[in-house]
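**Protein fold record**
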Amino acid sequence: MPEESQSKRRRQSLGSVMGSVFASMFGVQSSRKHEEDFAKGSARTYIVMGVIATVLFVLMVWAVVKLVVSVATPS
């Protein structure tokens, strides 16, 4: 029984958190993983990673738009 309580308190790895955040951004998170995130994860960690992932996504879209516009406009 004590082993189970320790495993529930164990923090998730950064890779696991990033994977969960990206999967949830695309809507492909499994219910098992979703339950695991709530059981083991910290809300603060997921919020911070979500904000970082959103900022990176917006910057990537902005960079692609700038590239397409620069290629499409005649010099």
